[in-house]
Design brief:
The chain is mostly helical and 119 residues long. Helix content is 49%, strand content 0%.
């Protein structure tokens, strides 16, 4: 019984047959049609107006901090999502679940949250 010596992949001459890289190939019309399917519900807007409105509201509330410095503290005290106040049966401050999304610490915070909303 003869043992074959393992072959190294680079020991042989490469095959002249070349294939295109999968990312450089242009997809067929059927493939592009499958990937380009978008669901458009009847009666829906083609532009995300609600997203734009949320971004504008976020920026407006953020800018209020600079106009009224005392308001910044009040917004933090009344708007932060405090779990004890939300879940406590005696207080039930459920509104804090919604007001907390409009509070931003600094410019980077509101910038990246707005970008996340937009994209």
């Amino acid at each position: 019984m003869s043992e074959e010596k393992p072959r190294h992949p680079l020991s042989e001459k490469p095959n002249d047959e070349r294939r295109d890289h999968p990312l450089t190939q242009t997809p067929s019309s059927q493939q592009s049609a499958q990937r380009g399917i978008r669901v458009q519900f009847p009666g829906t807007a083609s532009r995300p107006y609600l997203t734009y409105a949320l971004i504008i509201i976020n920026v407006a509330i953020f800018l209020l901090r600079y106009v009224q410095p005392q308001l910044a503290y009040d917004m933090l005290v009344w708007g932060v999502a405090d779990t004890d106040r939300i879940l406590n049966p005696s207080t039930r401050e459920v509104y804090r679940l919604f007001t907390a999304m409009f509070l931003h610490l600094n410019e980077a915070h509101i910038l990246f949250n707005s970008l996340a909303l937009y994209y």
